[in-house]
Amino acid sequence: MEMVNKGDVAWMLTSTLLVLMMVMPGLALFYGGMVRAKNVLSVLMQVMTTFALAVVLWAIYGYSLAFTEGNPYFGSFAKLFLSGVTLESLADTFSEGVKLPEMAFIAFQGTFAGITAALIVGGFAERMRFSAVLVFTAIWLTFAYLPIAHMVWGPGGWLLGDGALDFAGGTVVHINAGIAGLVGAYLVGKRIGYGREALTPHSLPLTMVGASLLWVGWFGFNAGSALEANSTAALAFLNTLFATAAAILLWLADEALLKGKPSMLGGASGAVAGLVAITPAAGTVGPMGALVIGATAGVVGLWGVNQLKRWLGVDDALDVFGVHGVCGIVGALLTGVFTAPSLGGTGSADFSIASQLVIQAKGVIVTLVWSGVVSFVAYKIAAALTGGLRVAEEEEREGLDIVAHGESGYRF
Amino acid sequence: MKMVSAIIKPFKLDEVREALNEAGITGLTVTEVKGFGRQKGHTELYRGAEYVVDFLPKVRVDVAVMDEQLDQVVDAIVQAARTGKVGDGKIFVMPLEQVVRIRTGETDASAL
């Protein structure tokens, strides 16, 4: 008998709201505070509109291509324009016989598509043409996000069938967005003055507010991915609390050790690093595993935005790859370790860390390659259609707020 | 007449203003400026990017004086603004051609 539980529905609708809040205004402010004042509106705009665009495309064909049966890489157009979805339509949960109204599931997953698209803008912030951002987003969503979501979470998905563990989207969201942001940063080029001038955050208080909203909202992102208001949700909730706290402390401690002072930007970044890393693990690792995953993310994330960033030689302006990409990879791999029952996870008795790690690594590599290649092509197409990825030099100097949006963020 | 332009440490503004008041100065203009001399700046760190910030915040006090008041005014500023540490600032004295009180049209001595 198929049952829809009011508690489950209430929790899923709430979780969806929390994920929306992660973007508006969480991510918007987190990113916004990190850029120079003359570009703050452009970042807020890019986050908001890429989210909105992704959600609309999700409504039209995105949900269908991600979550219907098709082949291992793509769903079908069976639910184009959400055809056939009614008030009576149901979606599966992880429990036999327990269902959700399909509309609740569509909404929840739609915010995931949206936030992934919005995350990417951090890579090319402060110099990309607005129209190019939108064209890129539409293409990338269709050919990178949807198939990867299908492969990891959709019926008949390739990586799901292989046993890849990605509870709330470490690969689908964070590694995916991370590599797309890195490719974009590489193709659009370094900001004028990078390495010489001070391209400093104009409002770290805003960044901290954004990071705080991200942490709170992430409980919807992770615990909502349990699809029920049950103990798995509670586990994911607890893990999201523990991992983030550990990541903040470790990032700050590491920073104090290596750089002399723990910084506010470091603390905010540490929080996000921990959140990203626990995302794929939230529903299958134990709370102690969460502490370790968070702590690891804090240290590795700091490395990602320092040494790795210098080594890559790319101006990933807001560290989309350094934090989301790197910590997404850390989280995806450690999920394969800490899901083991011997380490407190929910894995079955015959769980093999070694073989799970191989499956996790495969998921990471597939995501990096697929999204990387699609991103590259999508940026090239966007450039061709809009007259070039990058704004003119004098426009970049003046600031995107005036040039692209005719507005100033602040008047003193 | 002279224009006395003093670059001082921001926290010294109140003391300087009082000292000028005692010296009989009733009007002055204050601007927030940035600058450096021998005082070094500091390093700021944003994730992987380290920046040396050379410019230090200072305050500029501009006062127009009659020639007879000049020495007293300069001394007053020096006494009030000095801490003895690097970065105390400088005073620039420039010749002043004309002063006009906008409301009444009075000039020079009557405008000060």
TrEMBL record, chain B:
Positions of modified residues (O-UMP-tyrosine): 51
Keywords: Nucleotide-binding, Phosphoprotein
SMART domains: P-II (SM00938)
GO BP annotations, alphabetical order: regulation of nitrogen utilization
Record's keyword annotation contains ATP-binding: no
Gene3D superfamilies linked: 3.30.70.120
Pfam families in UniProt: P-II
One Gene Ontology cellular component annotation held by this UniProt entry: cytosol
Keyword Cell membrane: no
A GO term for molecular function: enzyme regulator activity
Family classification: Belongs to the P(II) protein family.
Protein name: Nitrogen regulatory protein P-II
Species per Swiss-Prot/TrEMBL record: Hydrogenophilus thermoluteolus
